């Protein structure tokens, strides 16, 4: 107990210094000390720029509305992870992990990698990627650095307990694995069994994340991949009344249903932690997209009919705020804000449960020593 009090005192000093730095620099104090991001191209903020893979978008018109231009984000500007960071009160972008040289890791790190998935073989034909397992390995490097920076692993653990963790994985396990003829997974597994394989693997990974000190974890479900412009063009004879490739959506909904069950299981299993489900499929619904004029078209000129990336140095649409999709698969900044706001502060009980991210921030949790992990009031 004495060691716990000592660690708590040390942590209080760390947070006091951190807040003082924000006050003296005229910066807003974030709602949480740090924010860690795991994911795919919807969250990637430039990690693939450092990797040996053609799956990278560090060229214009990507980033045409981003402060520094093309950054590696699959968007004209901010992505969903960025909008959540802003709503959490961070006044600068969360750093990418890159090749491990990031120095601003106390605020958090974004490990997202375009093309990566839950399974290690997902996207393997596209060269070097940060799979979910590699992202977790990279996070352990960061945790070790935080331990050295704060003086002990115990202080680091209490610091990390207060942070927000988001993970958005699974899209590529379908788009760049199960739905492709170049992989044999669709011959080996029925949609039901494949979803179960993903869930069992993801469970191990989320528990691994918990073991590093993560206690407030928001897990994003899969968006309606059958509505992506690339997929509606590739499956013209399989469209439903909403002009979406219904079979693709049906398969990923099997995963989403199982993921909701998994989140409930983990939330009940770990009493000192809170896992919550962000209902991306619901947030990406036609009703949500009514705010946009163009819901099935790409804003930029893609490389081929049914393709995903924008053609390099081409001129995109001028009315970007009216489009859901920037390229053949990824959202515009306007849609990212629309999405991120509902993940942070749900508009209905279907958007996120049992908590949205703002509630996750305020939630009181107790660690195994009986100390309060977060002192904010819900």
From TrEMBL:
Q: Which residues form the signal peptide?
A: 1-19
Is Magnesium tagged as a keyword? no
Just give the chief location class. secreted
Which InterPro entries does the record match to this protein? GDSL (IPR001087), GDSL_esterase/lipase (IPR051238), SGNH_hydro_sf (IPR036514), SGNH_plant_lipase-like (IPR035669)
- A GO molecular function for this record? hydrolase activity, acting on ester bonds
Subcellular localization, as worded in the UniProt entry: Secreted
Q: Does the keyword Secreted apply?
A: yes
Q: Give the UniProt record's GO annotations in the biological process aspect.
A: lipid catabolic process
- CDD domains cross-referenced by the UniProt entry: SGNH_plant_lipase_like (cd01837)
Taken from the record, one Pfam family name reads Lipase_GDSL
What's an example GO cellular component term for this entry?
extracellular region
Question: Superkingdom of this entry's organism?
Answer: Eukaryota
Gene3D superfamilies assigned to the protein according to its UniProt record, in alphabetical order = SGNH hydrolase (3.40.50.1110)
List UniProt keywords, sorted A-Z. Hydrolase, Lipid degradation, Lipid metabolism, Secreted, Signal
Q: Which family does it belong to?
A: Belongs to the 'GDSL' lipolytic enzyme family.
The name this protein goes by in its record: SGNH hydrolase-type esterase domain-containing protein
């Amino acid at each position: 107990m004495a060691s716990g009090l000592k660690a708590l005192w040390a942590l209080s000093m760390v947070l006091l210094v951190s807040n003082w730095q924000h006050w003296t620099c005229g910066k807003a104090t974030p709602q949480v000390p740090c924010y860690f991001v795991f994911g795919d191209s919807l969250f990637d903020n430039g990690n693939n720029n450092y990797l040996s893979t053609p799956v990278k978008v560090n060229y214009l018109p990507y980033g045409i509305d981003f402060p520094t231009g093309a950054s590696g984000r699959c968007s004209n500007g901010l992505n969903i992870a960025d909008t959540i960071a802003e709503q959490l009160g961070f006044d600068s972008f969360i750093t990418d992990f890159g090749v491990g040289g990031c120095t601003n890791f106390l605020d958090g790190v974004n490990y997202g990698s375009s093309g990566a998935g839950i399974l290690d073989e997902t996207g393997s034909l596209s060269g070097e990627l940060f799979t979910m397992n590699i992202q977790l390995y990279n996070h352990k490097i960061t945790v070790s650095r935080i331990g050295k920076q704060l003086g002990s692993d115990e202080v680091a653990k209490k610091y990390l307990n207060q942070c927000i963790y988001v993970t958005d994985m699974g899209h590529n396990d379908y788009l760049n694995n199960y739905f492709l003829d170049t992989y044999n997974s669709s011959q080996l597994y029925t949609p039901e069994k494949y979803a179960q394989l993903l869930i069992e693997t993801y469970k191990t990974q989320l528990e691994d994340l918990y073991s590093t000190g993560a206690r407030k974890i928001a897990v994003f479900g899969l968006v309606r991949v059958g509505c992506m412009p690339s997929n509606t063009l590739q499956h013209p004879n399989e469209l439903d009344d909403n002009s979406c490739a219904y079979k693709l959506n049906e398969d990923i909904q099997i995963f989403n249903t199982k993921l909701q069950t998994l989140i409930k299981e983990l939330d009940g299993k770990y009493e000192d932690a809170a896992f919550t489900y962000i209902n991306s499929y619901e947030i990406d619904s036609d009703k949500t997209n009514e705010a946009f004029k163009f819901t099935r078209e790409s804003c930029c000129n893609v490389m081929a009919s049914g393709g995903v990336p924008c053609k390099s140095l081409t001129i995109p649409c001028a009315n970007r705020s009216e489009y859901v999709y920037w390229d053949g698969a990824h959202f515009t900044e306007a849609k990212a804000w629309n999405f991120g706001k509902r993940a942070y502060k749900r508009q209905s009980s279907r958007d996120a449960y049992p908590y949205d991210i703002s509630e996750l921030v305020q939630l009181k949790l107790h660690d195994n020593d009986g100390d309060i992990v977060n002192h904010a009031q819900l």
